[in-house]
Specification:
Blueprint lengths: L3 H14 L5 E6 L5 E2 L3 H8 L4 E7 L2 E6 L4 E5 L4 E6 L9 E7 L4 E6 L5 E5 L2 H7 L13 H8 L6 H6 L9 H10 L13 H20 L30 E5 L2 E5 L9
Parallel strand pairs: 2-9
Antiparallel strand pairs: 1-7, 3-4, 4-5, 5-9, 6-8, 7-8, 10-11
Helix pairs in contact: 1-7, 6-7
This protein binds a DNA duplex (16 and 16 nucleotides) through helix 6.
Length: 265
DNA sequence: CCTATAGCCTGACGGC
DNA sequence: TGCCGTCAGGCTATAG
């Protein structure tokens, strides 16, 4: 689930649950998920420390330790967090388990091991090194800058939106929603968008992300007028009722309404 | 630059 | 019911 709204929701979850508790034991079962840090080092740096704040860039979540460095979590396709007390309540597929001195635990859970766990000195440096684009939501991109970013870009709008080095945080699902609300066909070319279309797209990005975060990225709570609520085989367009279509774009399945999102000539 | 493909992982689902 | 292929809200390496 983890696109920007989900990760932001978990960031707030960490803020509400896991700050300022002394960290005791650490259990790590994350082969091939550790990025630039060994099990031993990760364990040694976390034990006895405490999280003091969080930040997020795109789909990356950072938890700051009192001693300075930040725990970095990337959720891949299946990652999630769970803060709980019952010692028998460890979720299956917990890859990193943090025990706090208040008797609670924070489980970092990935069903598929496609996520990342790291320890970084500074999120801003990490973002630079990974060459991630600006966060798609905060602090917000001015329309003029957005137009400049897309100017001269080859390829489809959908692949640009999903490219983390262009804009960080948007994935397959939310790019479909943004294109639906902007009434752009997912195969639309960046270069072919006129000023009006760019403005509508820019607004749709901000709107979709804001509402999704407000609703805690919970599909049950998202507006029924959204594509992603009906985004499935044989789903219908919430606006006009037409059967949704899908096609492969940039290696992912794009859903769209063939009536509301007409392809450019 | 950009696209397409395979691969990394694991479980759910549909068809037979 | 069981087996098997396919697919999935991500990303990287590779080749063209």
């Amino acid at each position: 689930m983890p696109e920007l709204p989900d990760v932001e929701t978990w960031r707030r979850y960490v803020d509400a649950t896991s700050l300022h508790h002394r960290i005791g034991r650490i259990d790590i079962d994350a082969p091939r998920m550790l990025q630039g840090v060994s099990r031993q080092t990760l364990r040694a740096r976390l034990q006895g420390d405490a999280f003091e704040s969080t930040t997020r860039h795109g789909k990356h979540l950072f938890l700051r330790l009192e001693s300075g460095p930040w725990l970095m979590l990337h959720f891949g396709m299946t990652g999630r967090l769970n803060y709980f007390k019952d010692p028998d309540g460890v979720p299956s597929h917990t890859r990193l388990l943090i025990h706090f001195d208040n008797g609670f635990h924070l489980a970092c859970v990935w069903r598929r091991r496609l996520g990342r766990i790291g320890l970084v000195d500074d999120p801003a440096s990490f973002v630079r090194e990974e060459r991630l684009g600006p966060d798609a939501y905060e602090p917000g991109i001015e329309l003029a800058e957005f137009k400049a970013m897309l100017h001269g870009r080859r390829g489809s709008v959908k692949s640009a939106l999903m490219n983390q080095r262009f804009l960080a945080g948007i994935g397959n699902i939310y790019s479909d929603e943004i294109l639906f609300q902007a009434r752009l066909h997912p195969r639309s070319r960046c270069q072919r968008l006129d000023s009006q279309e760019l403005a509508v797209l820019h607004r749709a990005i901000g709107h979709v992300l804001r509402i999704a975060i407000e609703r805690q990225a919970d599909p049950e709570r998202l507006p029924q007028s959204w594509l992603l609520v009906n985004r499935r085989e044989r789903g219908e367009c919430p606006r006009c009722g037409a059967p949704l279509a899908h096609m492969a774009i940039a290696g992912r399945t794009a859903y769209y309404c063939p009536d509301c999102q007409r392809e450019q000539q």
